[in-house]
Amino acid sequence: MDDGQPEEHLSSAASIVLSLWLSLCSIPAVTGNAVVLWLFYKNDSLRTVSNRFLASLSVADFLVGLVIDPVWIAIRFFIEASSPSVLHELTLMLWIHTTAAPTFYICCVSVDRFIAIRFPFRYQDMVNKKRCYTVVILVWLLSLCLPFSKLSVTNAGDINRAIFWFSLTFITFVFPLVIVSLSYICILKAAKEQFKRIFGDENSRNYNENIKVRTLQNFKAIKTVGFVLGPCIITWMPSLVLMVFDINYAIENNKDKMRSLLFVVWPWVDAVAFASSAINPFIYYFRNQDFRQAFRRTFRWLPCGFTE
User: Are the CB atoms for 277 and 34 separated by under 8 Å?
Assistant: First the structure.
């Protein structure tokens, strides 16, 4: 530090606990998301537009378990990078990417389901494979380029850094969360009306069976994505709250509080946030019937207890 004050760090016991936690999260994040991606690759029935966005989310979660968790353990708890260092900047850039990719993809899935429910007859024309791949590529490029924006404020003052982190938090978390929330309000309202209209009408036989099946599938997809969104909000919300405190201390120029947050509090918050990558693949399996059936077909050699 430039003022010569000693930096705070986690105790040895806390470092061991958090290292074990990240290691335990890394294993299901790698294996679970690898299984989801393998099922997506081997089963044509799973290659819907919505599942393509979920597969991209699985790629991001897989990289968290394979790369981010081990790097975080090494940098945070063994190397202990000081704040004005290359390794410290690397941790911040990795954090930005790890935050941006999952929230952007959950946002994409929510908008996709909104279009499917709100415009069921135009969905195939509005959301095709070409546009899906275009969005996937754009999201990856954005989530990979955003971390490099951190380099623009490396030597900036505390106020400029506070403005930067506020803007980045809005882009990577608040804005996607607002879009997702608005989408789900519209989705649930439209889905309930559609569901009652089709299945509550005495003349429901007049409705095309394909429309009925699609309505049920969309309703189930809404629940699945909702279960994905819930853990994401729960695990990443502490980061958002802590970011607000961090920005406030930066504006107040309270360097002691900023050090405490950076070296003592943030590692715990990061450990909670990265747990979402280990949770998501299990949600896909337990909430999505197509994934369950594909799992049973692909891994028939497993005992019945694993596939039922």
Answer: no
